[in-house]
Amino acid sequence: MLYRGSRITAIAPQIENTPQEYLDTARVEIADAEGRFLFENVAPGEYFLQTQVFWTVGDNIFPEGGSFYEEVTVTGDETTRVVLSGR
């Protein structure tokens, strides 16, 4: 994950030299049964959303999937729908 030009791991963000501002402002949510996340009461600003999705197919023990991300700008009291694509 990128945070102001620095790389930060999304799996264990409390790594050495992680900016305290990142730790103070990062939010974690769990998806509903349809894979949707809801972040409420988000202050206006620019955000970087990131998630990881993994699954297995059949008897395969090796997972498939990867990381998806998107930069989002919140401008006020509106609902913003975002599709995480990783592009």
Protein traits:
87 residues, two-stranded antiparallel ribbon, 4 strands, mainly beta
What does this entry look like structurally?
The chain is mainly beta and 87 residues long. It has 1 helix and 4 strands, in the order ββαββ. The strands form 2 sheets. The protein has a two-stranded antiparallel ribbon. The chain has a two-stranded antiparallel ribbon with strand order 3-4. The two termini are 13 Å apart. The mean pLDDT is 76.
What's the shape? extended
Supply Rg: 15 Å
Proportion of residues in extended strands:
25-35%
Order of helices and strands: EEHEE
SSE topology:
Elements: E1 2-3, E2 6-7, H1 20-25, E3 45-55, E4 64-74
Antiparallel strand pairs: 1-2, 3-4
How would you summarize this macromolecular structure in one to three sentences?
The chain is mainly beta and 87 residues long. It has one helix and four strands, in the order ββαββ.
